[in-house]
Write a structure and sequence with these properties.
The complex is a heterodimer. By secondary structure, chain A is mostly helical. Chain A contains four helices and no strands. The mean pLDDT of chain A is about 85. In chain B, helix 1 links the parallel strand 1 and strand 2. In chain B, helix 5 packs parallel to helix 7 and helix 5 runs parallel beside helix 9. Classes of the chains: A mainly alpha, B alpha/beta.
Chain lengths: ~120, ~230
Amino acid sequence: MHLVFTQVVLSIFIVFALSRVFLRFKSGEVTFLGFLFWILLFGSALAIIIYPPISGGIARILGIGRGVDLVIYTSIVLLFYLVFRLYVYLQDMRHELTKLVQKLAMKELDEKNEKKPSSQN
Amino acid sequence: MRLLIGIPAYNEEKMIGVVISSLPKRLTGVDKVDIVVVDDGSEDRTGEIAQSKRVTVLRHIINRGLGGALKTIFAFALERNYDILVTFDADGQHESKYISDVIKPILSQKSDVVIGTRWKSKAHVPFSRRLINQLANVITFILYHVWTSDSQSGFRAFNKNSINKIKLQTDGMEVSSEFFKEIKSNNLRFSEISIIPVYSDYSLEKGQRLSNAPSVMINLLLRLLR
């Protein structure tokens, strides 16, 4: 089987990405579900890069004209979903941050109030 | 009856002192009036000036937005067990003489939440303001099914029941609309009292601008999706 230059470069990149997923999973930064998701995503990308007719086959089953179209459609949907997840995650982080800032403000006030009586004595 | 006046303030050194001094020390039907200023990470002397006026100051170490400041005011009112909470803008657009009007429906136990609305009086209000507000009212109605003549008013009064029940989520300007979601979902009785705002160049520059509208709308819509 002959691999063209683009296939080689893309494959190397995907293998690199897969290695990152493994390492992140091993160190506990990625959950098991997340690990499966990324392995499946990069794994299928690798399969399609090395043997492109796969995408054509799936595209035909789904009634989409070309394999390339299938890849682009899927990528766009996935990207949108991931951006949405990121948005939700960021909002949650901002709310957590606000909670923290609020706790600190209340704590600072309590400490000031505790100090006051003793300084008046 | 203990009443708390809560003022969210971000970079309001020009007005905060005047606003605090204008607030009433006593109100009919209320035994005690306390004031809390949430200095929302101001870079100017807002916190310092408020402190010098001998009111309680809660300092956010970083800016969290209007919603964040209001959440802290609610948390404080809840923790200190206040019977009534009045939220009041720091930019000087509200006159303190209306506080007694706004708490009247609460004292007579007719309402849980009272909004001081700027649109029922015949007072002249800049057109851009009117437009922004009408737009916000329609969006608030579509999202939360509560019709109000002033969804963006910062002048509100809450009784103990609503202080306990209202749980704010948003951090930014969209918090003003979120109050109506809470009113609806907690079945709170709500009424409006007409107030006449003071529109100075200063308060106009400070308040909701048309340029805020897209981000407020996107945030409210995305909240529905999540």
